[in-house]
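Instructor's aside before we start: the two examples that follow are unrelated to each other. I chose them only because their records fit on one page, so don't look for a connection. First example below.
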Amino acid sequence: MIDLNEGDVHLSCEPGAGKSTFCMNIARTAIESGNSVIWSCMRAPDPGRFSIIFEGVDRSQLVNFKIIEFGDYLPVVEDVILDNLKLMGEGDLLVIDDWCEPVGRPKKEVKGSLIRILESSKCGVIVSSSTKMTTEQYEMCSTVARGMIKLATEEPHKVFTQGLKGFVEDRKNKSIPRHS
């Protein structure tokens, strides 16, 4: 289960393991709870999957869901994300889906951009990345990811609420740097 008790979360799984679907379910719960969500990604979410996951969500709540697409280079939208983060607070959620390429090390500028975004955030943050793994690593990660998706699908409010409580407590107890 994703728990924001320990601060921001990074999910790294083989492509197709379900991390984006899992994050969309958490985003749905945040939206239904009256919070805002920024979904930043290399490519916009699959419209069919998005429609299924967000089916039944009141249209008036969906205005609090922003998608910021950055292609293959996160720094391109860093300022846009930072400007939007100024309007967000506790209870809101930033998802950066596939923040870097799945092969090799992330570029220095991309890592720097991610760090500045994380330091500026006053809301919950989930960052995901795809990675190439051995078969054994893939099976383990896939099993864990599918378990998290099942839990988030069956009890999304519980998963979100537990994570949010932990995140708020973590922010109170730790000195987390803020970007001015």
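Example two begins here.
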Amino acid sequence: MRDALRLSRGMSYKNAMAGLPMGGGKAVILAGPDRHKTPEMLSAFGDAIDALGGRYITAEDVGMGEADMVAIAQRTPYVTGLPATDSSAAGGDPGPFTGATPMPLDGGTAGGVAKCAGAPVGLAAPYAGGCGSGDGWCARSSCNGGN
């Protein structure tokens, strides 16, 4: 729970810096150590989202996938990240499109930071810590040369 509160606070700061007129919410399912989410948990989660009447819209994030969003959508219309219905529709994991840094970091970025810090440029490497779903995509892309 502490992690969810920390993340929502960070999202609020991120939204404020972007000039968005809303805070940053995080919703959590407290699953067991195996991270298994039962159909009952997903239904209760959907009901809780629905009770907010559109003031919060849930989406895929770390530990949640398309199948979870489909199950939640059985209880509320306030869900995104559902599978695309045709090739012209958006759908699925929104992470690659919503990260704080939508483009991968590269060696030039790391080298520039190293130079500004007075460190040897050859020792620099991109680093991303505390990543959510979108920022995790950015970090993985950086490590894979942008792929």
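The chain is about 45% helix and 0% strand.
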